[in-house]
């Protein structure tokens, strides 16, 4: 490649800006979600509202022609994305239920098995045999999960842990299916995000009715909580609306920024940002929601982060190694934001 055609590396300011944005956005998403879920019994309707806001912002951006790809709606593409949309709806729903039933500081522990599940899923579905070091990193993460569950020292919701484990498994399958889904939209991560948000919102409508949330939605908009609200406290509807707007806008912005993140961030950057996010989420949970950080919970979070960081470092080293891989198939690095956040609402993280 000639010097004229060589791609100029991204500036330090650009990399810093993208990393800081993801740190703030990811933390804000978790905390805003927890803030709303503490006051509502309609987590699926909350998810639906977030998706609708993202869809509206996509349409506005398309009308203003600020997106690199023009949005459209094709029935054949919709049919091809059925597995992706199904996984997205189930994964996001279970992720919201996890956050509803566990503390914000315990959320990362409850969803701590994403990495081991992803390695297993890649082995089964992609015939990708992991190295011993990868298996060791999964062992570290699994140890951290069980330490958090059995040695936390505070009463834990078994329902929340169940939802966390299931949503972790869904995230793992999601990370494999997303590659096949990208081929349906000709490799456009932006179009995949558009279709996934739109179709997921439509699929959620009958599910909300079947889940029995209509009564709670009626109570929410009728202001039934006004009789129990103390002076100075925001109403349940106000909390719901502001939480939906904040998380909906952030979800849309993350879907756009992810296109840039793929180009400017590295595995080492993910190592650092994941550690900072994990610690910051625990501190914010303790500060905003008065979570109790026991020694068992702190140890669990630290061990899960250690295993995740070690995994990212090993994959980085293996990708740089000139020696033939021992894998039976193409083994793809799991992005750390997927480990911590579950299936993204933007669903636009392109496998690397």
**What's the story with the biggest beta sheet?**
none
As residue ranges, the low-confidence spans are 323-342, 347-352
| Terminal-residue CA separation | 22 Å
Characterize the overall form.
globular
Q: What is the tally of helical segments?
A: 14
Fraction in beta strands: under 5%
Mean pLDDT: 81
What's the helical proportion of residues? over 70%
SSE run: HHHHHHHHHHHHHH
Over the alpha carbons, how many angstroms does the gyration radius reach? 20 Å
Structural class per helix/strand content? mainly alpha
DSSP strand count: 0
Task: Describe this protein's structure.
There is one protein chain. With 352 residues, the protein is mainly alpha-helical. Helices cover 71% and strands 0% of the residues. The chain has 14 helices and no strands. It has helices spanning 12-37, 43-63, 75-80, 82-101, 107-110, 114-126, 132-150, 158-184, 189-210, 214-222, 236-264, 267-289, 295-320, 336-341. The protein is globular and about 60 Å long.
């Amino acid at each position: 490649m000639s010097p004229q055609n060589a791609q100029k590396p991204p500036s330090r300011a650009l990399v810093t800006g993208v990393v800081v944005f993801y740190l703030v956005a990811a933390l804000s998403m978790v905390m805003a979600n927890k803030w709303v879920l503490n006051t509502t019994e309609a987590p699926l309707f909350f998810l639906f509202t977030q998706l609708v806001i993202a869809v509206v912002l996509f349409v506005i951006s398309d009308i203003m022609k600020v997106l690199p790809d023009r949005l459209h709606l094709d029935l054949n593409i919709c049919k091809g994305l059925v597995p992706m949309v199904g996984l997205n709806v189930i994964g996001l729903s279970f992720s919201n239920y996890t956050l509803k039933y566990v503390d914000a500081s315990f959320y990362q522990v409850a969803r701590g098995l994403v990495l081991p599940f992803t390695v297993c899923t890649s082995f089964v579905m992609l015939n990708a045999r992991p190295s011993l070091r990868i298996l060791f990193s999964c062992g570290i993460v699994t140890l951290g999960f069980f330490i958090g569950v059995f040695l936390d020292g505070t009463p834990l919701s078994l329902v929340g842990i169940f939802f966390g484990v299931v949503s972790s498994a869904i995230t793992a399958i999601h990370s494999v299916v997303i590659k096949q889904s990208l081929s349906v939209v000709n490799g456009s991560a932006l179009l995949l995000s558009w279709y996934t948000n739109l179709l997921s919102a439509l699929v959620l409508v009958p599910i909300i009715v079947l889940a029995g949330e209509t009564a709670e939605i009626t109570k929410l908009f009728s202001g039934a909580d006004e009789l129990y609200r103390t002076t100075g406290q925001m109403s349940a509807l106000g909390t719901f609306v502001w939480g939906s707007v904040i998380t909906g806008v952030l979800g849309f912005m993350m879907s756009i920024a992810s296109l840039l993140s793929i180009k400017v961030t590295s595995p080492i950057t993910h190592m650092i940002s994941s550690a900072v996010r994990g610690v910051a989420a625990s501190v914010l949970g303790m500060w905003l929601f008065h979570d109790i950080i026991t020694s068992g919970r702190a140890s669990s979070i630290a061990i899960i982060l250690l295993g995740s960081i070690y995994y990212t470092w090993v994959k980085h080293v293996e990708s740089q190694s000139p020696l033939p891989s021992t894998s039976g198939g193409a083994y793809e690095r799991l992005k750390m934001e997927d480990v911590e956040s579950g299936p993204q609402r933007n669903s636009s993280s392109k496998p690397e």
